[in-house]
Amino acid sequence: MDKGKVGEDMKEVQQLMTDCFSLPKVELHAHIGGCIRPETFLELAEKKGVSVEHIDFYKVDIKMAFEIFVVGSKLVTDLATLHRITTEIIADYAKHNCAYLELRSTPKAFGENSKNDYVNTVINAIKESETEHMRVRYLISVNRSSGVADAKEAAQLLRDMKGEYVVGIELSGHPEQASFNDYKEIFEELQKEGTKISLHCAETKN
Ligand SMILES: [Zn+2]
Question: Which helix (H) or strand (E) covers residue 167, if one does?
Fold first, then answer.
């Protein structure tokens, strides 16, 4: 084997990595619950006594992805933690030279804190973390496993909080637990009102 040649190839690969890393990027599909730093994930799990033995960050298929979401929801149970993970996610995307980042997450009520408080916490984290090179916006998520009443509440929350930072709504959640048809009317109504919509689709066979 020509060691000189291998060295040259390595240099080229490293240069390619550096170039890719520094390319300006647009990220339109970042779930807050799915982008928690692995070290933060493990730290919170230990603090809260949540088992993560079955989580494999190196083998994320659709089943594992939803496991991560389930465990994540047990770890993020207060606004301070939400603020922390959102800030970390934005910092991580900034390192990858992301120019536009669109976060998405289902607003939750924590104890005495309302879903409005959840949205405001995300907005505050964005305001504090945005840079002149990177714009960050937020989509309110509708979890299709939570039912139509919950989706109607999310639609109203969107109407109340839509603005500079809250720019749209999306449908997510486990694809095998409900059908888009149940939510079609709510989304069509929002669309007529001029709301921008993002939908998950084709996640499973058929
Ligand atoms: Zn998604």
Answer: strand 166-172
Q: What is the pLDDT of residues 24-59, one digit of tens each?
A: 999 999 999 989 999 999 999 999 999 988 888 888
Which two tokens mark 46?
A: 């230990």
112 noted as active-site residue: no
- Please calculate the CA angle 103-106-107 and round it to the nearest 5 degrees: 105
Compute the distance between CA of residue 168 and CA of residue 162 in angstroms, rounded to an integer: 7
Domains of the chain, each with CATH number or no CATH: 29-199 (3.20.20.140)
Question: What per-residue confidence (pLDDT) applies to 143?
Answer: 92
CA pair distance 135, 149, nearest whole angstrom: 32
Separation of 10 CA from ligand 1 center, angstroms? 34
Ligand 1: centre distance to CA 206 (Å)? 18
- Is pLDDT at 1 greater than 80 in this prediction? no
Burial of 23 (C-beta count, 10 Å sphere; 0-12/13-18/19+): exposed
**Interval between CA 72 and ligand 1 midpoint (Å):** 15
